[in-house]
Each structure stands twice: as structure tokens, then as C-alpha cells.
Amino acid sequence: MGSSGIAANIKSSDRACRLCGGATRVAFEATILSRHRVDYQHCPDCDQLQTAPPHWLDEAYARPINVEDTGLVQRNLLLARHTALLLFEGGLRDGPFLDYAGGYGLMTRLMRDYGFDFRWIDPYAQNLFAVGFEAALEGRFTAISAFEVLEHMVEPAAEVGALLAHTDTLVCSTELRPEPIPSRDWPYYGFGHGQHIGFFSRRSLETLAKRLSVRLLTDGAFFHIFTRDPGLELPQLRGLRGRMRLKRMQKQMRSLTVADSRRFE
Predict the structure, then answer these.
(1) Which tens digit of pLDDT belongs to each residue from 2-44?
(2) Contact assessment for residue 234 and residue 217, using Cβ atoms and an 8 Å cutoff
(3) Which of 76, 115, 120, 243 gives 108 a disulfide partner, CB atoms 3.0 to 4.6 angstroms apart?
(4) Alpha-carbon gap, residue 69 to 118, rounded angstroms
(5) What domains sit in the chain, N to C, each tagged with a CATH number?
(6) Which parts of 108-222 are beta strand (E)?
(7) How far is 254 from 181, CA to CA, in rounded Å?
(8) Which residues pair with 172 in a beta bridge?
(9) Are strands 11-16 and 23-32 parallel, antiparallel or unpaired?
């Protein structure tokens, strides 16, 4: 079935949108983790697509980082470049910073290698690459990153709001949902692992930003920033000019790689 086939067969449902509280309609059904038959519900008010209330999450997180995520390393390398240039050009060079739901600690390590005082937190994963740089979600951070996290949130407005209570700038990634609602073969649904329960469009991100009284910056694909900083702008990494700006940043920043290793002598 094509994308338009699903979008054309939306039927009524009285379940509330977990982003804006509006009434949702069932867009389609799918089987999660090979055993749970689940409604996928669309909210016409904010354009959010969500699963029915996710009762299967304990099962889904038996392995915190799912084996289907073969793009984990490549994505971290790309997002580290984007984030480093965003912070550098936005004048946000002094930490502390926090990588929320930081997985194995790869992003924290990459950002420290660029020279940014990043810390790690993830109650579900083992910190392999940033041992010694753990932190709690307490106090203030110059910026917080939360990559591939939005699609896991049960209550996105409340959970993003809780992060923004500790920073003025939240840097995120999530793959924006194509229009119309994609067919069941869209890989980002993640039926096999069951961890993705919310799927954002640009309009649903804009709704989230408005509810939280922050600015939204987005590349329209997967890199997004919620910020109270009126001067912050998206970095430009494309082409020769982007590569030159990244090299200039690396010359001016002082990597923490060697200094970090000496902590353990």
C-alpha cells in the first residue's frame, strides 16, 4: 500500500494526542515486537503521529540500544560536527554541556575531542567511551543535547520542558515524518524494536516549541534546536565553505582528548 493509501483511510478515535492534547484518529495498525497489535494515531491539530499508549516499553528496552541501529556511529560523527559548529559560532563555547540519554558515551567523547566540556547521562545504557565524565540532570548547562530521543518520549511536551528547565538551548535529532503519512515500510517506525512511539513533522515541532515558549531552529530533516537564545542560528556544513568553517573552529578550540587521559594517571 502506498503512503497516500494510509492517509486516505484515517478513521475516528477518541485517544488524546500526547503532544498537544487534541483528539487523534487512527491512521493505521501495525504489529510491534512481532506480538503487539498497535494503533498508530494522527493528531490533525498538531500533525503528530503516535502509537497507542505504549504498554510494551519494558520489553522494548530489554536491550537499551537496539541492534537495528546500524547508523549509530555514522550519525554520532555527523551530529558532533553539526553541534560543535553550532556551539562555536553561537558563542556557546564554555560548558558545562550535557548529552542526555547519551548511550555508550560516544557523543560525549567526540564533543570533548572537539574541546567542549560535555558530560554524559543515561540511566539505561553503559558508558563505554566517556567514563569519568558522568553527570546528573541538576543545575544549569550551557546546552543539552538529546539525539534520537524525541521519538522515544511518552509525553514529549513535559519531557522536553524538563530538559529546558536546565538550559536555554536543547539540541535534538529526530527524523521528520514525510508527508503524507508514510506506509508501513518506513524504517523509522521501528516495528521490530518497539522503541519509537512518536513521529514528528515540522508542524508538530513548531507546536512543541510554541507550547514551551522557545524558538525552533530546524534543517527540515533531522537536526533541530529548541532555544531561548535570540541570536543562535543553524550551522552551515555543506560544501567547501562549511568544511573551512569547521577547520577554523578546530584550530581555535583546544581538544580535551589528552587532558582527559591524564585524569586517570
Answers:
(1) 333 333 343 444 589 999 999 999 999 999 999 999 999 999 9
(2) yes
(3) 120
(4) 23
(5) 72-175+202-262 (3.40.50.150)
(6) 118-121, 143-147, 169-173, 198-199, 215-218
(7) 45
(8) 146, 224
(9) antiparallel
